[in-house]
Amino acid sequence: MNIVVCVKHVPNPDLPMVVDPQTRRLVRNPAESVLDTADEYGVELALQLVEQHGGEVTVVTMGPPAADDALRRALAMGANHAVHIQDDALAGSDALGTARALAAAIRPLAPDLVICATESTDAYSGMVPGALAELLDLPQLTFAREASVEGDTLTVKRAVDTGIQTLQASLPALVSVTASIAEPRYPTFRGLMQAKRVQVDTKTLADLDLDAAQVGEAGAQERVTAIASETVEKQGVKIYDEGGDSVEQIIAYLKRIEVI
Amino acid sequence: MAARRVWVWVEVDSDGGPHKLSLELLTLARSLGTAEAVVLHPQAAGTVAALGEHGAAVVHLGDDARFGHYVVDPQVATLAAMLEAERPDLVLFPSMFAARDIQARLVGKLGLGAIANATGVRYEGDQIVVTTPYGAETVGTVTLDNAGPHLVQIRPKAFAVEAVGGNAEVRSVAAAIDDGALRVRLLGTEEATAEGPNLEDAEVIVSGGRGLGTADNYVLVEELAAQLGGAPGATRAIVDAGWVPYSHQVGQTGKVVKPNLYIACGISGAIQHLVGMGGSAHIIAINTDEDAPIFDVADLGVVGDALTIVPALTARLREEM
């Protein structure tokens, strides 16, 4: 089967998030950015599925030149091909613009399965997978903690408030995955060497036949008007335990937040 | 000028009533204009009284059986038709799986602007102004340029549930469903297993760190987690030390979790750990070092020995629950 995994190069989440007050965009320092760990689960699922059923894995990203690093990491894990959507006019894209660009790059690949993370670690709107599924006219099976394919049937399990749901759809389909889906493998030395040699397929807006008014800052309807670096100080309470007396205070707190 | 029409997408709870997160949104909706609930579910009729009680002036009710047999597609098709026909100013979605699926799909289908993870909505003239937190220390103010309807997802507990009394007018919704477009079948829902939820799904997580002293003491964390119906977590330090498997690790290189309650036992709060759990709605930290960074993110910080407090708390909860 032919699988596409959407991946993103995100600022290292160990470091504090910095927003540029002028552009009101997240500051993305390429040297301090990584393949989103949330995407590694999807890459792993794709690799496992092609190990079982045959086929190839293509990773797709949208981002500045440095995002190549995220693709190389996925290639080192074992993905076969990579597509890099790269165009200055894409800067400032909102979720819809991002989904439009991804859809344009993925459509000609005619994959059996598209895999996304549930949400990115930096923007975490969670809007891209669903919008992408709609634009590609694919059924969407989201928040998967287990996914399996038999013939052309995709079965997904996910945890919701009421229990574990089992969802099923025919391929082609889009699935978004949680961290429960698979334990991502570490790239081998051989994988790292091979990843360097893969020719990444770079696509501009013109290559994708996309209108600049539909994507990027120009196409974005969501506009950040202000950024306040207000420290959200937790109005936390600190108590000192004396011979176990804190237990009653913890109980009172649990009742207040309705956990018990 | 007519009052703004603010729709609230309603999730139906397992007990048949409206989910609490949807009721929270009615509080916001009432403050912005006329609150109207949208319930597309086979048992939708059971929610009407409670929705009226919480301030919905109108309930748009669709109870086609197909809303229960399939996910996303029938709701999206019906809601898209309703939005095109009625053009409400704003649709509020709770931060729940089904709601997010539907909202995201509508973004692609209708080309509408949308905002997720919002904590507030107001209007400046005709301009919608939405606040969303960016990480832990920055708050953004976001607007949408399109004419609307605007689709905004609100975080849990941003607003309180308020019973204000009232009766909703019920308007029947014709399901705009093309059977050929129903693609994601719901085969069934199993009750969650008795062994407790895993980390990503848990509403309560109790985690342990180096402060527990030895691997044997991790059982105290597991017992408290089990008592609260939650999942046990761990820091990288004790995973690296081999006390517990990697699958328990919360943090940047482990799992990023956002439970309703996170209890950190004997955890100092390295940045790598804080990144993984800082988004939890409520945080209790128990640690002997009063200067530990974990106390900076804790709602309730307990300076004391987790080895004595945690088992005492578990025992006390057994009496209580």
Q: Could you please say which CATH topology of the largest domain in chain B applies here?
A: Rossmann fold
The CATH superfamily of chain A appears as HUPs
For the record, the CATH class of chain A is: Alpha Beta
**Kindly, what is the distance between the CA atoms of the first and last residues of chain A, rounded to a whole number of angstroms?**
48 Å
Biggest interface, residues from each chain: A-B, 84 and 96 residues
Low-confidence stretches of chain A: none
Keywords:
A: about 260 residues, alpha/beta, Rossmann fold, seven-stranded parallel β-sheet, three-stranded antiparallel β-sheet, 8 helices, 14 strands, B: about 325 residues, five-stranded parallel β-sheet, 10 helices, 16 strands
Q: How would you describe what is shown here?
A:
The complex is a heterodimer of chains A (260) and B (321). Chain A is an alpha/beta fold and 260 residues long. Chain A has a single domain, classed as Rossmann fold (3-Layer(aba) Sandwich), CATH 3.40.50. In chain A, 29% of the residues lie in helices and 28% in strands. Chain A has helices at residues 37-53, 68-77, 95-106, 128-135, 189-197, 205-208, 216-219, 246-256, and strands at residues 2-6, 9-11, 33-35, 56-62, 81-85, 113-117, 140-144, 146-150, 153-160, 163-170, 173-177, 201-203, 222-228, 237-240. In chain A, helix 2 (68-77) packs across helix 5 (189-197). The longest helix of chain A has 17 residues, at 37-53. The mean pLDDT of chain A is 90. In chain B, helix 4 (73-86) crosses helix 5 (97-110) and helix 6 runs parallel beside helix 10. Helices cover 29% and strands 27% of the residues of chain B. Chain B folds into 2 domains: 5-181, HUPs (Rossmann fold); 204-320, Rossmann fold (3-Layer(aba) Sandwich). With 321 residues, chain B is of the alpha/beta class. In chain B, strand 12 (204-208), helix 6 (218-227) and strand 13 form a beta-alpha-beta unit. Chain B has helices at residues 20-32, 48-53, 66-69, 73-86, 97-110, 218-227, 236-240, 271-277, 294-297, 306-320, and strands at residues 5-9, 34-40, 58-62, 90-94, 114-118, 120-124, 127-134, 138-144, 150-154, 169-172, 185-190, 204-208, 231-234, 261-265, 282-287, 300-303. Chain B contains 10 helices and 16 strands. The radius of gyration of chain B is 22 Å and the shape is elongated. Chains A and B meet through helix 3, helix 4, strand 7, strand 9 and strand 10 of A and helix 5, strand 5, strand 7, strand 8 and strand 11 of B.
